[in-house]
Amino acid sequence: MSDSFIIHGGKPLHGEVMISGSKNASFPLIAACLLTKEPCVLENVPLIQDVVVMVEMVTKLGARVEWDQHARELTIEAKDIITCSPDEALSRKLRGSIVLAGALLGRLRRAEIPYPGGDAIGARPLTAHFRAFEELGAVIRESEIIKIDGGALAGTSFFMDEPSATATENAILAAVLIPGKTVIALADFAPPIQELIACLRTMGADVQLRDLHIEINGVRRLHGTRYRINPDEIEISSFACLAAATRSEVVLRGITPQYLDPVLLQLQKMAVVFEHDSTSMKIMKPISGYKSFRIQSGLYPKLMPDHVPPFAALATQAEGTSLVHDWMYENRLRYIPELQKMGATCEILDPHRALITGPAVLAGCEVESFDLRAGMVLVIAALVARGRSVISNVSHIDRGYERIEERLRQIGADIERISENDK
């Protein structure tokens, strides 16, 4: 059983929040460290449960790992990879572990990958990953374990089956060390992919991000590097929505505006008052009411699917009706019935769309977190709501937000974690 949060809401917050390193960029960057025998140092690594699992997985593959958690610095030296098979039990905890397939193919020319786990937010088939590997010359056999033979890998030109972020990352990881030129069309250009390309280039890879495709000229070897992970743009939007929804004045420190254009635009459309510079963002108390607006995910540089749920929580406090549309994941709207329990006026139209009408007076009650981003929706709603809320299954939240209750208490939130042993 998971821990729960008890939150007494309805109080304005005030103070500063330090933004952590990107969760979604951490997985492919950790995988990239397996492509060289030399030490790689990743800075600004978020101390979250999913990264803990990923670090344990590369350790079991044979990499030597040193993690200075206080300094947020992770050193990986993959001098010897002792197996091409990631730990099955750990793989089933983490969807992002699938990027180890591309790294192992690039390094060892073979991989045996268990089907990965993660949030139950909808069907996420591995078709795009398999097709990319096969285009590069791999032979795939599926059973309980996915066996991938990359002995004939060679550069080629192909288009992605779909613009999947992790499939694009896998294709890049597999291609940087194979002979010849690889051109990947219809690739995803989301921030974690841009981070992966930037890191690989510091390791000696020849990867170029073109207007409509990714171009890779294979090299014989990569060297070690030191690379700083970008601040988590999903965490930035989450805390910005949290501050706005609670009508609070909160400063977000340690940001970079590099990937924030769609977030800033959405905040503007919903009449959130804010200002920012190159390292911080200040959310200010609203001058008037927030405005309803369409909250729709798309391919980068539009809002990414992980941005949508926190904005949905903000929509409960906006005047009028907002359309929430997550085109990718059909189970991402499971937080809507939980918001209804708290008094929100909202309805699910179909597996991908919902309507939220506000502003709503929310009341505390018992709700359940079904996945990582839904958990953050409920935290925001509970901080807005009058009275006491209990959020169960908060282990989902721990997977993506570092020490969330401690950071919220620092800005005045009344939040307490209750473990199952304490009940």
What does it look like?
By secondary structure, the chain is α/β, with parallel strands linked by helices. It is 30% helix and 26% strand. The chain contains 14 helices and 24 strands. The protein has helices at residues 23-32, 49-60, 88-91, 99-108, 127-135, 165-175, 191-202, 233-245, 261-269, 308-315, 335-341, 372-384, 395-398, 404-409, and strands spanning 4-9, 14-18, 40-43, 64-68, 73-77, 110-114, 139-142, 145-149, 157-159, 181-185, 206-209, 213-217, 225-228, 249-253, 274-276, 280-283, 290-291, 295-296, 318-325, 345-350, 353-358, 366-368, 387-392, 414-418. Strands 17, 18, 19, 20 and 21 form a 5-stranded mixed sheet that branches. Strands 22-23-1-24 form a 4-stranded mixed sheet. The protein has a 4-stranded mixed sheet with strand order 2-14-16-15, covered by helices on one side. Helix 1 (23-32) packs parallel to helix 7 and helix 5 runs parallel beside helix 6. The radius of gyration is 21 Å and the shape is globular.
Number of helices: 14
CATH topology of the largest domain: UDP-n-acetylglucosamine1-carboxyvinyl-transferase, Chain
Q: What's the structural domain tally?
A: 2
Task: Give the % helix.
Answer: 25-40%
- Cα distance spanning the termini: 11 Å
Supply Rg: 21 Å
CATH class of the largest domain: Alpha Beta
Q: CATH superfamily of the largest domain, please? A: Enolpyruvate transferase domain
Give the overall shape, derived from the CA principal axes.
globular
Largest sheet geometry? 5 strands, mixed
Strand content: 25-35%
Total strand segments = 24
What low-confidence regions span 5 or more consecutive residues with pLDDT below 50?
118-124
Q: What structural class do helix, strand and pairing data support?
A: alpha/beta
Named at the architecture level, the CATH assignment of the largest domain is: Alpha-beta prism
Mean pLDDT: 94
